[in-house]
Amino acid sequence: MWILGIESSCDETGVALVRADVGSGLPTLAAQALHTQAAMHEAYGGVVPELASRDHIRRVLPLIQNVMHQADVGLSQLDVIAYTRGPGLAGALLVGAGSSCALAAGLGKPVMGIHHLEGHLLSPFLSADPPTFPFVALLVSGGHTQLMQVDAVGSYVLLGETIDDAAGEAFDKSAKLMGLGYPGGPALSALATLGNPLAFALPRPLLNQPNLDFSFAGLKTAVLTQSQKLGADLEARKADLAASTQAAIVDVLVKKSVKALKQTGLKTLVVAGGVGANRALREQLQADCRKFGARVHYPEPDLCTDNGAMIAMAAAMRLGAGVQSPQADYAFDVLPRWPLAQTLT
Ligand code: KG4
Ligand code: ZN
User: Fold this and answer.
1) Which ligand is nearest to the CA of 141?
2) Residue with CA closest to ligand 1 atom 16
3) Domain of 337, in residue numbers
4) Are residues 329 and 223 part of one domain?
5) Strand partners, 331
6) Which of 12, 191, 305 is the best mutation target for the ligand 1 pocket, counting ligand atoms within 8 Å of the beta carbon and taking the most?
7) How close is the Cα of 273 to the center of ligand 2, in Å?
8) What is the pLDDT of residues 268-295, one digit of tens each?
9) Are residues 97 and 58 in the same domain?
10) Each residue of 36-89: pLDDT tens digit?
11) Using CA atoms, how far apart are residues 48 and 211, in angstroms rounded to an integer?
């Protein structure tokens, strides 16, 4: 069967087509297309929700046509249309939900509303090296930082999460303080390769607490204080400050992930969300997990950040596992704040 996935929760319009056939293994990606609005929001230093919604409206139909053309599949061949129902920006989500339901109603096909984080969580199943259940998932995006125990599709237990800023936010806010533009994560991590991670001692909050929660709000204050102290020297020491900031974030993420593996007794870690693209995080996780025989799985690099493939994949896997049925009810809504655990009901 053919499942079209549409993601529009934030600043990326993503569309993809996944093929899922009963009894023939994991679903596979047939085609995908993406438009990122990063350049549009850069001038404002962050996502402007109204501009995001308007841009999704402009992009979504051409992207659908693009994907169908790439895969050489006709709209009438679609079996299900899946869209991100939440969490995210309400207006942005409504564009994906509205266009999916309108298209589905026109074609007489059913729809599925999908949780954005479940998309991230299951995206490594589209990789060349897919994980197997059960596993611990580290979800690290611009809006979320969570450790979950995943026993099966639809079975997600929250082990710990950030009590303030998300890891991606810590990257983005620190990068902004250093004048590195938006979104700052990739820029900060590129600059960090030129610096010394031990140059500045930055805080690693909650690192030695027995729980699996995170806190990153103090880090940006420490980065601000450090850059003010440096004054005119900031320019010359920027790479060192970037490297030290990255080291603090990565250190906490790695140590807490290892703690979650040990606590649950699991030997498989799945890393998903935009920050999962970070090279330093990958290297340190790899090294620390190898020490006790645990394996780390990631989505393919282009599926780490928001995309339509993960939404189509989550729909395919929920269908395959029998935890959600497609609906021919087009009175859609969106859930801007939607706890992942509630997708069970
Ligand atoms: O998952 P995602 O695309 O969107 C959300 O759902 O939030 O994640 C975006 C976040 C941003 O904060 C961005 O700066 C961060 O992921 N990010 C990175 C890297 N690539 C993206 N952070 C650190 N290093 C990277 N290489
Ligand atoms: Zn995301």
Assistant:
1) 1
2) 274
3) 2-122+304-342
4) no
5) none
6) 305
7) 6
8) 999 999 999 999 999 999 999 999 999 9
9) yes
10) 999 999 989 889 999 999 999 999 999 999 999 999 999 999 999 999 999 999
11) 35
Q: What are the E-state strand segments in 295-341?
A: 295-297
Count structural domains, the chain: 2
Give the nearest ligand 1 atom to 167 CA. 12
Q: Which ligand is nearest to the CA of 168?
A: 1
Domain with residue 308: its CATH number is 3.30.420.40
Q: Are residues 289 and 334 in the same domain?
A: no
* Ligand 1 atom at minimal distance to the Cα of residue 246: 23
Q: What percent of the chain has pLDDT over 90?
A: 93
Average pLDDT score over residue span 238-263: 98
Tell me, in angstroms, the distance from the centre of ligand 1 to residue 32's CA.
19
Residues 67 and 32: beta-carbon distance below 8 Å: yes
Return the residue whose CA atom lies nearest to atom 13 of ligand 1: 185
Average pLDDT, the chain: 95
Residue 32, helix vs strand vs coil: strand
pTM: 0.94
Task: Report CA torsion sign: 70, 76, 77, 83.
Answer: positive
Cis peptide before 134 (omega within 30 of 0): yes
Residues 141 and 279 in one domain: yes
Residue 158 has phi, psi (to 5 degrees) of -75, 125
* pLDDT value, residue 345: 45
Around ligand 1, the residues with Cβ closer than 6 Å are 10, 141-143, 168, 171-172, 183-186, 189, 273-275, 277-278, 305-306
Of 270, 254, 277, 256, nearest to 189 by C-alpha is: 277
Nearest CA to ligand 1 atom 21: 274
